[in-house]
Design goal:
Blueprint: E1 3-8, H1 22-30, E2 34-39, H2 44-54, E3 60-64, H3 77-84, E4 89-98, H4 106-123, E5 127-132, H5 135-144, E6 152-154, H6 161-169, E7 173-176, H7 186-194, E8 200-202, H8 224-235, H9 239-254
Helix pairs in contact: 3-4, 8-9
The structure holds zinc ion (2 copies).
Length: 258
């Protein structure tokens, strides 16, 4: 079986108490058949550090981008384009809009989100989209910037069925995290039942949002298996099937061979 964690923050894990180094994180993941992951960056200096961190490791892919909550540090669009052109970079992001944690820079968030999509189209690489309390603006910007041309994924999906449908309509994938296993997440489980298997990705968003039964602990790529097991039951398929389909989806969207 081959599972992929389509979204994790390897540079934010606890390497003092939880893990000795990246090798130990990846070994723990492999023991649960999680054989590949996408290391997502949230700032451009962070991207460069992440690239050094994963150098020499097999099947670790990178995204390049600036998270909507990290826009206090100014960056140049040309720098984003130059860094994202790297052959190890399979996606732009994470980018998007977060009106839940920050409302004093909405025009800036929107401008940077548009830039990421434009660079994604220019390089023909998909975008990894983060959205919180910004459903309508996220959808309109994706459509206005013709994100269907580079495609992408709405990561850590917590929106409704209508939003999922609009994203499916523009060729996007929907990624489910450990939130789907939470006791109070029935509305999200409805969305997961609705989204077709061939457009579904799985992720940890580690170190955040550890799935049941690891809640309260630091999340890590190994735990994407718990998300997979849960979704397999929800979708009424074998775990092996869910693994195969989501891993194929990952290869398709990010144009990688696993
Ligand atoms: Zn996010
Ligand atoms: Zn993230």
């Amino acid at each position: 079986m081959y599972l992929v964690d389509s979204h994790c923050h390897l540079d934010a894990l606890d390497y003092t108490e939880q893990h000795t180094d990246l090798n130990s994180v990846l070994t723990a993941a492999k023991q649960r058949d999680v054989k590949s992951c996408l290391a997502v960056s949230t700032t451009l200096p962070g991207f460069q550090a992440l690239k050094k961190m994963v150098a020499g490791h097999q099947n670790i892919f990178l995204s390049c981008g600036v998270h909507p909550l990290n826009l206090d540090e100014v960056y140049q669009p040309e720098t984003l384009l130059a860094l994202a052109a790297d052959s190890q970079v399979v996606a732009l992001g994470e980018t998007g809009l977060d009106y839940y944690y920050q409302q004093d820079n909405i025009p800036l968030q929107q401008e940077c989100f548009r830039q990421h999509i434009q660079v994604g189209r220019q390089l023909n690489k998909p975008v990894i989209v983060h959205t919180r309390d910004a459903r309508a603006d996220t959808l309109s910007i994706l459509k206005e910037e013709r994100a269907e041309e580079c495609r992408g994924v709405l990561h850590c999906f917590t929106e409704d069925i209508d939003t999922a449908q609009q994203l499916l309509d523009i060729g996007f994938y929907i990624s489910f995290s450990g939130i789907v296993t939470f006791r109070n997440a029935e509305a999200l489980r409805e969305v997961a039942r609705y989204v077709p298997l061939d457009r579904m990705l799985i992720e940890t968003d580690s170190p955040y949002l550890a799935p049941v039964p690891h809640r309260g602990k630091e999340n890590q790529p190994a735990y994407v298996r718990d998300v997979a097991e849960y979704l397999a039951v929800l979708k009424g398929v074998e775990l092996e099937t869910l693994a195969e389909v989501t891993t194929n989806n990952f290869s398709q969207l990010f144009k990688v061979t696993l």
